[in-house]
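Entry:
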Amino acid sequence: MRIWFDTEFIERGSDHAIQIISIGMVREDGAELYLESSEFEPKDASEWVVANVFDKLGPESERIDRAEMRSRIVDFCGESPEFWAYFHAYDWVVLAQLMGTMSDLPPTWPIWSHDLKQLAWS
């Protein structure tokens, strides 16, 4: 099943793990999933994230930890997802890191995603 997704995140360079803020997913059957993490540090955010992401987040009381995010995403995506994102490189890394490492992706999942921007450019 095709799944289109986007993430918001905080990055601080190669010495620090990427911190997921939120992920939104839409399956080709129209089902939607949107999750916000309770495990990011707002003080680490870039000016762009502060200006363009934080004011769109829901209440802190509705945010969930990474383990719950993983569980809900795996349930939502099922066994044979085909992932698509716009400028997908970071989104794919964020999703893979949420699972642990690339080796920790569910065994029936692909180890790559598809890029909508590349498709549009070709």
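Residues 72 and 118 are 29 Å apart (CA to CA).
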